[in-house]
């Protein structure tokens, strides 16, 4: 049944609808593949019964003629999403064993469309990380390896379980979340597609918060079309999220077109930075050629405040996180440590010291610092101002172009344990973060392999609400890049 | 009672001191649901029976503003003649406590919903010139916290989250008050206005209204001194006691060479003293920042107009209207002090009672009866319509004032209508000169000696004959007719 797991979501949907195979066959194939791939450490919880139940419902829906858009499609769900009755821990020890009595809006939307859940996907703790190494469950291993090497590589982060599972064919598609690149960088590292829609497209209700003004859910899948299919099901106005966009969900899949005639592609000069490998800049140039071939006109643009994006992000995101994570206090759910003879403060200290990992603690401390009396204006207020300037950069840029093309990440996947300096790790998101600060839709599409045989991604940033142009440009690249490489199965 | 109008001066060793008072009043908003969740708000429910996932700060939960709470706060602002800010924003106030599940309180520090306004207080109900305007600095909307219960377990505290997330208005006055009497009058007036508007039930015993009392002292004409803030004072009497105590304590402290510490204090109602709540070392850094889960609150014209149109006649306007109807300033003031009394009295006027007579009757007769019976206006079994009927029976001469008192007592006891009582018990006043003459003749015959005395000049005996006649007529004789007939017969 391995051929079933190699199929795209669009292919699975068509095959199931035509009766070529049943949803149950698909679910069984995936359940088997998931169980056989535990070496990747991609799943924190496996829920084969859930996938089968959804498949059986899909098969009977097909007989009655009312299958949902994702009927018969088994998905992996990032552990950041609350799933009713199933461990939802955000990759953290502090939420160990937490089974919410509620379902996030995004996963509820996917279930309503008929999708099944294969399990919960490993991730960096509270989505803080770029390599999956901060997870309380240990790192996910990428299915990819360097040519002739057995070194375990990172699948990227924070949605590392999501990227690895799609790349390894142990999920037809996966949910990711992106605060500062957490969908796009792992997609690039593992040769798959991932899109972060406009901030507010997907409800944040039931998604464990990292940085509320930046967090946005999105799909990760093998193809651009699969991303469009998934995003249509995930997105939608949600009155339970005040920041949710009250707009109809466009028909992204039906409007997919790689004909880019009349479109202008912005190439930001500030994204040519030192220390980026030649392979990546070369791929960027090929990307420009591909889009020209699709009919688009490249234009050089300037995003002058780009260099301030990363420091701005690392003030705002930790500030919000320091407050968002205050609720993990041992009082109502999750881990509780009560030292003998200790009072309430002792319980807080012990619970949080034991429950949070080093990276989460680092960001709580940074966030607490930048919000504290005497530093607030110098850091937080200043960062908010710079964020407004960055947004304005994009606003001006989109007067000159329709979509922006850049590399997704400044490197290919690196080895587990190779990057130990937090600041070096933060640099992974240098190309991804500006679009996050501006709340813009952005996508990574695989463009080719580097000299070591590792996937590289191209990054498309669109104007707000214009996921369609991003997807269309992604499709044009996908068609021309002809990226068909798959990792050799070693697990 | 001391003259409320007299300046409040503390005579210290070094001269005279003036007290400066500002109040921060926390008023629980009347609404069925909490500020950011759909949970109910009724007082006295089973612990933790009115708690939503949002109130318990479960992972991934988001606040959604309850428009009714905003509407109530805007109406309150309008009633206090305050500036309504069309653009306001919620901020997070971060601190850890077991009654605060989110680890932060959602409040408004930087951009409150309501700006400057004022309240006019009347220091002496009998002296219309004794008014003073107390400035309102701002009103903001915020979440209440839960409640800890320390008496349920030998070593642990329990948490009740029913109150957690309930909407509060914090009404901040200017430091415009100069005596305990002014502070008391301000709080009473504010409470009356909130109850007229219906935005807060003003129930201080249940904690739905409580005050933080800011007190400092200074030599008249000098700069403000350092203030202390006594938290959560829950009655008018206690607020006045706090001012009295703090003012004396601070004067003594300063005169002994000490310095007033800017600190938070608690009031001990049993001992009538305040004491420090926490030391400076534990002072919180609340790390306020805009809540990224919420969009700024923007109010449009239609919403503001609807708020304004829904405001009832307020106490000052009502008092002036009553005075214009010929009601004495004292009665007008008493009748408008409490919204239930004013409503009852308006009912009486609507039922056709003559204003002046009605006001006198309510203040003297009705209040007297309620006092005796330990009842409030809302408990009285007598409707304004029945009372108007009773007053009409007196006004048109059907019964005498004396009989009216009897009828009123019977009404209170039996709940019967006045006409029925008068009818059934034959209490109608008679002007039948035949019957009256017959009784007068009997009395004059039986008291021939007194008649002789009267005729020889002892005019004051006239009252004796009136009394005897009325007694013989069981109070039902028309006193005017009795007077006329007696004068005629006595010559």
Overall structural class of chain A, as computed from helix and strand content, comes to alpha/beta
The CATH superfamily of chain A is known as: Amidase signature (AS) domain
| Major sheet strand order of chain A | 1-3-2-4-6-5-10-11-9-7-8
Structural class of chain B: alpha+beta
The gyration radius over C-alpha positions of chain B equals 30 Å
- Report the helical percentage of chain A: 25-40%
Question: What is the CATH T-level topology of chain A?
Answer: Amidase signature (AS) enzymes
> How many structural domains in the coordinates of chain A?
1
Q: Ranges of chain A with pLDDT <50 over ≥5 residues?
A: none
Q: Mean of residue pLDDT of chain B?
A: 92
Structure description:
Chain A is an alpha/beta fold. Chain A has a single domain (1-491), classed as Amidase signature (AS) enzymes, CATH 3.90.1300. In chain A, 38% of the residues lie in helices and 13% in strands. Chain A contains 16 helices and eleven strands. The longest helix of chain A has 25 residues, at 376-400. In chain B, the strands form four sheets. In chain B, strands 1, 2, 6, 7, 10, 11, 12, 13 and 14 form a nine-stranded mixed sheet that branches. Chain B has a three-stranded antiparallel sheet with strand order 5-4-15, with no helix packed on it. Chain B is α+β, with helices and mostly antiparallel strands. Chain B contains 15 helices and 16 strands. Chain B has three domains: 9-306, no CATH class; 313-424, no CATH class; 433-490, Arc Repressor Mutant, subunit A, CATH 1.10.10. The radius of gyration of chain B is 30 Å and the shape is elongated. In chain B, helix 2 packs antiparallel against helix 3 (236-255), helix 7 packs across helix 9 and helix 12 crosses helix 14. The chains are: A alpha/beta (491), B alpha+beta (491).
């Amino acid at each position: 049944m391995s051929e079933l797991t190699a199929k795209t979501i669009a292919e699975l949907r068509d095959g199931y609808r035509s009766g070529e195979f049943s949803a149950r066959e698909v679910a069984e194939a995936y359940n088997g593949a998931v169980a056989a791939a535990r070496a990747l450490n991609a799943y924190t919880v496996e829920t084969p019964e859930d996938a089968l139940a959804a498949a059986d419902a899909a098969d009977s829906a097909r007989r009655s003629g009312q299958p949902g858009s994702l009927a018969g499609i088994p998905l992996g769900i990032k552990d950041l999403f609350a799933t009713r009755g199933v461990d939802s821990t955000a990759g953290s020890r502090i939420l160990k064993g937490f089974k919410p009595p509620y379902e996030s809006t995004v996963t509820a939307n996917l279930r309503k469309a008929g999708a099944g859940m294969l399990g919960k996907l490993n991730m960096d703790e509270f989505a803080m990380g770029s390599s999956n190494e901060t997870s309380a469950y240990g790192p996910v291993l990428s299915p990819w390896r360097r040519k002739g090497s057995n070194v375990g590589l990172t699948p990227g982060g924070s949605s590392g379980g999501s990227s690895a599972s799609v790349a390894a064919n142990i999920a037809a598609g996966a949910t990711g979340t992106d605060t500062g690149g957490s969908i796009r960088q792992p997609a690039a590292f593992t040769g798959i597609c991932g899109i972060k829609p406009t901030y507010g497209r997907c409800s944040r209700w039931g998604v464990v918060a990292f940085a509320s003004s930046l967090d946005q859910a999105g799909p990760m899948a093998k193809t651009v079309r699969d991303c469009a299919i998934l995003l249509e099901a995930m997105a939608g106005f949600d009155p339970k999220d005040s920041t949710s966009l009250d707009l109809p969900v466009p028909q992204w899949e039906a409007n997919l077109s790689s004909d880019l005639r009349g479109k202008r592609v912005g190439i930001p000069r500030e994204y040519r930075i030192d220390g980026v490998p030649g392979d990546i800049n070369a791929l960027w140039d090929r990307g420009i050629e591909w889009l020209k071939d699709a009919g688009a006109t490249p234009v050089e643009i300037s995003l002058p405040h780009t260099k301030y994006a990363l420091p701005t992000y690392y003030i705002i995101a930790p500030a919000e996180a320091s407050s968002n994570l205050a609720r993990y206090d041992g009082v109502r759910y999750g881990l509780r440590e009560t030292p003998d003879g200790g009072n309430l403060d002792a319980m807080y200290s012990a619970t949080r010291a034991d429950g949070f990992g080093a990276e989460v603690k680092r960001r709580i401390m940074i966030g607490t610092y930048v919000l504290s009396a005497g530093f607030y204006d110098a850091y937080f207020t200043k960062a908010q101002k710079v964020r407004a300037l960055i947004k304005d950069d994009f606003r001006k840029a989109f007067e000159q172009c329709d979509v922006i093309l850049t590399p997704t990440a400044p490197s290919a996947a690196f080895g587990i344990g190779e990057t130990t300096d937090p600041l070096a790790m933060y640099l992974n998101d240098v190309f991804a973060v500006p679009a996050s600060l501006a709340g813009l839709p952005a996508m990574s599409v695989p463009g080719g392999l580097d000299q070591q045989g590792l996937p590289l991604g191209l990054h498309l940033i669109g104007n707000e609400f214009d996921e369609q142009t991003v997807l269309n440009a992604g499709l044009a690249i996908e068609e021309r890049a002809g990226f068909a490489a798959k990792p050799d199965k070693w697990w | 009672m001391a003259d409320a109008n007299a300046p409040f001066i503390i005579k210290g060793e070094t001269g005279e001191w003036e007290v400066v008072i500002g109040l921060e009043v926390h008023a629980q908003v009347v609404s069925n649901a909490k500020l950011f969740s759909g949970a109910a708000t009724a007082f006295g429910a089973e612990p933790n029976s009115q708690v939503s996932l949002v109130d318990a700060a479960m992972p991934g939960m988001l606040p959604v503003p309850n428009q009714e709470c905003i509407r109530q706060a805007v109406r309150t602002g309008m009633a206090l003649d305050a500036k309504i800010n069309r653009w306001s924003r919620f901020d997070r106030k971060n601190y850890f406590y077991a009654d605060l599940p989110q680890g932060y309180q959602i409040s408004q520090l930087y951009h409150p919903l309501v700006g400057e306004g004022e309240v006019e207080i009347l220091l002496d109900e009998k002296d219309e010139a004794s008014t003073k305007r107390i400035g309102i600095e701002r009103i903001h909307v915020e979440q209440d916290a839960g409640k800890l219960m320390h008496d349920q377990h030998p070593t642990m505290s329990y948490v009740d989250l029913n109150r957690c997330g309930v909407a509060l208005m914090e009404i901040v006055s200017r430091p415009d008050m100069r005596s305990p009497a002014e502070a008391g009058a301000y709080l009473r007036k504010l409470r009356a206005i909130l109850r007229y508007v219906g935005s807060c039930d003003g129930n201080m015993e249940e904690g739905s209204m409580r005050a933080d009392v800011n007190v400092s002292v200074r030599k008249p004409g000098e700069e403000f001194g350092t203030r202390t803030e006594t938290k959560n004072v829950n009655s008018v009497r206690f607020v006045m006691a706090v001012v009295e105590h703090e003012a004396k304590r601070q004067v003594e402290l300063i005169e002994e060479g000490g310095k007033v510490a800017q600190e938070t204090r608690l009031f001990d109602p049993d001992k009538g003293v305040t004491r420090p709540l926490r030391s400076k070392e534990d002072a919180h850094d609340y790390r306020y920042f805009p809540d990224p889960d919420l969009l700024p609150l923007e109010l449009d014209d239609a919403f503001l107009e609807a708020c304004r149109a829904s405001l009832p006649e307020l106490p000052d306007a009502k008092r002036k209207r009553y005075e214009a109807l010929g009601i004495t300033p004292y009665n007008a003031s008493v009748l408008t002090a409490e919204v239930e009394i004013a409503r009852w009295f308006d009912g009486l006027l609507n039922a056709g009672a003559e204003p002046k007579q009605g006001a006198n009757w309510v203040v003297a007769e009705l209040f007297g009866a309620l006092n005796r019976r330990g009842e409030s206006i809302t408990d009285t079994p007598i409707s304004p319509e029945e009372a108007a009927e009773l007053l009409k029976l007196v006004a048109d001469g059907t019964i005498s004032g004396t009989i009216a008192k009897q009828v009123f007592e019977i009404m209170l006891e039996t709940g019967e209508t006045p006409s029925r009582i008068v009818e059934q018990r034959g209490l109608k006043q008679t002007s039948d000169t035949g019957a009256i003459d017959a009784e007068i003749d009997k009395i004059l015959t039986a008291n021939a000696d007194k008649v002789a005395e009267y005729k020889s000049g002892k005019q004051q005996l006239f009252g004796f004959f009136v009394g005897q006649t009325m007694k013989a007529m069981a109070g039902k004789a028309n006193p005017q007719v009795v007077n006329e007939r007696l004068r005629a017969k006595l010559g």
